[in-house]
Every structure is written in structure tokens, then in C-alpha cells.
Hints:
The complex is a heterodimer of chains A (about 450) and B (about 270).
Chain A: E1 6-17, E2 20-31, E3 35-39, H1 46-54, E4 61-66, E5 69-70, E6 81-84, H2 96-106, H3 111-124, H4 140-152, E7 158-162, H5 170-187, E8 190-195, H6 198-204, E9 207-212, E10 215-220, H7 222-227, H8 232-237, E11 242-250, E12 253-256, E13 259-262, E14 272-278, E15 283-287, E16 294-303, E17 308-313, E18 319-324, E19 333-338, E20 344-347, E21 353-361, E22 364-367, E23 370-373, E24 385-390, E25 395-398, E26 406-415, E27 420-426, E28 431-436, E29 445-450, E30 456-459
Parallel strand pairs in A: 3-8, 3-9, 6-7, 7-8
Antiparallel strand pairs in A: 1-2, 1-4, 4-5, 9-10, 11-12, 11-14, 12-13, 14-20, 15-19, 16-17, 16-19, 17-18, 21-22, 21-24, 22-23, 24-30, 25-29, 26-27, 26-29, 27-28
Chain B: H1 2-27, H2 44-49, H3 56-88, H4 92-107, H5 110-124, H6 130-155, H7 159-166, H8 171-199, H9 203-208, H10 217-228, H11 234-267
Helix pairs in contact in B: 1-11, 3-6, 3-8, 3-10, 4-6, 6-8, 7-8
Amino acid sequence: MGESNFIIELSHISKCYGDKCVLDDVSLFVKKGEFVTILGPSGCGKTTLLKILAGFGTATSGEIKIAGADITDVPPHLRPVNTVFQRYALFPHLNVYDNIAFGLKLKKVKQDEIDARVRKALKMVGMTDYEWRDVNSLSGGQQQRVAIARAIINRPQVLLLDEPLAALDLKMRKDMQMELKDMHKTLGITFVYVTHDQEEALTLSDTIVVMSEGKVQQIGTPTDIYNEPVNSFVADFIGESNILNGEMIRDRVVKFMDREFECVDEGFGENSPVDVVIRPEDVYIMARTDSGMFDGVVQSCIFKGVHYEMTVLTPNGYEIMIQDYNAFEVGQEVSMIVKPSDIHVMRKERICNTFEGKMIDSTHVEILGAQFLCNEVADALEGESVVVEVPFNKVELMDNKEDGQQVGDVRFILYKGDHYHLTVRTADGENIYVDTTDVWDDGDIVGIKIQADDIVIKRKQ
Amino acid sequence: MKRFFAQTYLWLLLAMLYAPIVIIAIFSFTEAKVLGNWTGFSTKLYTSLFSGGVHHSLLSAIENTLIIAIVAAALSTLLGSVAAIGIHNLRGHKKIVMNTLNNIPMLNPDIITGISLFLLFVSLGITQGYATVILAHVAFCTPYVVLCIIPRLQQMNPDIYEAALDLGATPFQAMRKVIIPEIKPGMISGFILAFTLSIDDFAVTIFTIGTGGLETLSTYIYADARKGGLTPELRPLSTIIFATVLLLLIIINVRSQRAAKKKEALVK
């Protein structure tokens, strides 16, 4: 391999409990001195990844190297990393000094050196003269400063931060963000920061790793992630966006909202289905004119401090979110323009639900851990495995979970301008994707029903 | 009027609870052989309690009781702490099972514990004496210690063990420098509880003490009472034990109040 520039090398890390994987083949390479943020909604596996890096958890498979040394099986106390915990995790029976000196005392550092380094660390976090205070008497912000001092005093190669600001109030959080960024510059230590707050990630990081469902969705600079999201999940998670179904007619021409638009993307092939992302601040809005690209009526207008946020309904039923410095009244007829370079086209991850299924008999198939009635498959063998396809808009969701053939809970909701695209996790742990105009909430328990005519069975031969 | 009845009721109740102890304490300062006869103030019973001679067996019973209580309390605190940490780190189903298994011996009547331990020692061919009494006391005290420590573990920030490892402590150092200081109050109250349970135990002790002439306070008093009449020196002894317990209670209360005040002052 030779010398590598990377301080952290995570290769093919998976963490599974039975067949459920919280981390699924995650690879990540971090350069020395970088500020990397792992960003994702709760339950995406980001904290698990950090714990594996710190050594508190072990990966089911994969390899971890820090500074070129394989530490996959090294216990946490021998790793050149230190962690700042979300709930501070200060030792309540020790005062500020003893908390900070904990690591150095274990390493048998000389007393006068410990004194000097504790003072320096306290100065760094702006807590000079707090040495002899009881940690329980400190505010949340002060406790987190002590926790940071306790970690950086050991001069780790990598500092791991697990949502360190999540428990602080907004004002304190903003202050601490700036301080952390300064600290990162002064110390030159590699920071790996975990958060679910996209704004925090955009503010602090050199590199952002967006995670969802145990997989890395995108790795890039904050600008890249914001301007060129690779899929609709990233686009929706980072900032506000309009995400619409579209079709790539040919290179540089994309059709959405029943109209063809000029764009700058190429290489998607002709007539291929795509997701189109337009940031609300990239839509130019004006009073109705003939020179607009499309028209609409203002549905709502909210003042957001610097700009106004408006929703506009187009005549063919699409809702578009627009941010502009000018306000347009509700009910006003407006026209919109979008620059070709502001239309972001992304390949669809899937265009149809595809499941591995098993024939029960010629008219019943087992998918998603339940039995579904299907159209007759001639001479189907019992137990024959098949591929089953179900269009997104043919899946019915029921309020009453008993009314469906299987139960699931709504995991992720994407608004597509004129309908919602839902990710529903079924009771057996598979995802089914549903297009619907009904409004569901995150976490709703639903019954899932599919008509026999809508189940397409493909035999494997 | 209502208040008057409430007050009277309270004082009557307290009088009934404390009258026997007060009577013993009063009659410990007189020489009469029979309880209830007042033959003038005297501290003779106190001096004869500690003078040996006739009452040598009583003194050695006290000594045995204290040694057994201290050793049994120390051993059950050690075992109980390890068990509590183990149970705390279990998940789901296993945790519930272990907690239940820990609670059953406490609900089990002492007499059953005593008989079953007796049968165990006999069937294993172990000669009964000091060791068997201590083992028996450890057996019934440990669940109480576990019960004293588990709440401390539940209140503890679960991340601090990992934080210690993260800062370079070996698992053993993390236990000693972080977990033990956190659960120490639970360990102390567990120790005190085990100590008092051991001192006044009779049912388990009588079955495991053997026939080698070993006596603890409870078995001594039992034998003494059966011989006909209680030794008068038991009066000053009961008074001393009561006074000691009272003193201990006052110390513990004052200490915890001071700690609470200190904490309150710091928060402000």
C-alpha cells in the first residue's frame, strides 16, 4: 500500500444484528487535519459509525485504519482518538481539574506538566480559573467546554464529536460552533463530527458525509452537497428544495410539470425517468408576463426575516416553493423563470418497487413477509422464487392496519410538487415505496394493500 | 378537636413503639434480677456485662456476632456490587430474569432459607461453624446489596464508562476510578443493611451454626430464655445496641443533609 495521505481509513464497514444492518458497507477516507461531518437523520447509523471508530462497538465486517495502523480489533483505551459525548459524560465525583487531568494522570505524566496542560486546555475553551469547581455546578455549555478540554488535552490524532451541541440552546450552540471551528484551526487535529443538523454541518465542515439507512449517500464539500445533491434524499435533507418527477427527453432537455425545460445535464439517455431538483431561491418570480417559463397563483406567503417564502400552484396542479426578496400577495397571478444551470437532474434510484417473492400456489405470492393474491401464473410451482414488481402509485395505504395485507410504518416523506413519495418500512424490515396524494405523517403505522391486478410477476428463467 | 385526636393518636402510637425499649433502658440501671422490680439506681449490670467471669459466654457471643456481621457484610457488598453491575449491563429478557431471581431470596421466608442451607451443608458433608454461618449470611444479604446498588447505576450517565476507556483507562481502571466512586453511596448503604440484617438474624443462624458450641447474640438469648429467665445483663446490652444504632442513624442523617445543602449551595 505504501504511505497514504489519509488519517482515517474505513473500508467496507458493516454492522448487522441478524439480517438487519445498521451500517451497510460504509467506506470513508479522511485526510489529516480535515473537519469531517457525518450528517443524517436519527437512526441512519451515524452514531454507530462513530462508536465503531472510537472502539465502543465492533463492526460485523470491515477494516479500520488510523494513521496507517490497523486498529480494527484494538480496544478503545489504546486508540489514538478521543471522544466528546453528546451528554458530556463528565465524571460527577471529580472537579473540573481532575476531569480534565484524567487522561494525563493515567499516562503518568509529571504533575507540573499536567498543571500546565490543564491550564492551557481551560484557556483554550475559555474556562480559565474554573479548575476547582464541581462539575455538577456548571451550566450545559460550560460542561461541554470541560468535556472538550478533557478530550483535546490528550492530543489525540482524531477528535470524535457525537452531536456535542445538541443539548444546548440555540444561542449557545451558535457561539460554540464558531469556537469549535477556531479550535479546529488552532489545534490542527482531525475532527469527525456527527450531527443531524444540516445547517451546523454546512457551517462547520470541510467535508460532509450524508448518511441514510446505514449507507453513505454522498460525500463532498458543503457547496457540492448543497448545489449538486446526488439523489432526492440528499436534496431534501440539505436545505429546502422542490423535487419533481421528470423525464430526460434527450441531452440538455428535461421534461417536468408537463413542459420541456432546457438544462445543462447530459448522458442520461433518451426518455429516461429522472428526479428534478430546484432550490427555492433559484426560481425567479414576477407578476404575470408572457416571457415567464411557467405561470401560477400564489397560495401562501410567509416572511422569513431576509426573504419571503411563497408557494405557487401551477395550472396543472404542481406546488412550487419559492424564496424571493419581494413579496407577492396570496391569490396574485405570477410567472416564473428558472435558469438551465439551476435545474439539477438526478437519476432515479428506482422507478418501481421490486421484490424477491415466492409462489405459494398459482394465484398467491409471498412478498414482504405476507401473502398477496395475484393473477394466475400458469403452472407455477409451489415455493418457486420470482421477481415481483409493483408500481409506486398502485400501493394503497390504510389507516386501519388490519385492513391491509401487511403492516408498515412511514419512514420518509418526500413532497414531489403534486404528490408524496413515501418510504414505508414493512413489519419484516423491507422498504416499499408509495406514491400518494393522501397526507401521512412520519411514523404513522399503516396497512399495506395491493390489488391482484397491480402485482406483476416475473419468473426467473 | 380533630387536630387533638390526630396528635393523641400519633403520640399513643409512638409510645407503643418505643415503650419496650424505654422500659429496658430504665431497668438496665437497677440491680434487680427480675425485670419490673426497681431496687434503686445502679450501674452494676453495666460493669458486670464487661467484667467477664460468669458472663464470659455472653461477651463471646457478642464478639462472634460482630465478626460474622462484618465479614458477611463485606463479602456480600463485594459480591452484590459485581452482581449489580452485571445485571445492569444485561439487556431485555435476561435482565428481567436476573432481577426476579435476585428478588426471590428476599421474599423467601428465613426459615426456609435456613432449612435448605442446613440440608445443603449436611449433604455436602461440611462441618457447621463459623464458615457456614458466614456463608449463609452472605447468601441472604447479597440480594439486598444488589437492590441498594442498582438504582445508583440507573442514575449514572451510561456514557461515563466509555468516556473513561476513551481517555485511556483499561476496563479495570475505568471500573475503579469511575464506576466504583459513582456507586459508593449504594455500596455503603448496602453494607450497613447487610450488617444489621446479619446482627439480628436468628432463623438462618440457628440452622447453620452447628453443634460445636458457637453462639451468636440471637442464639445465646434464645438458649438463655429457654433455660428460664433472661440474664439481667441483657438489659444494659440491649440499651447499648439501641443507643449505638440511634447514634449511627443520626450521623447518617446529618451527613446526608449536609451533602444535600452543599449541593444546593453549589447549584445556586
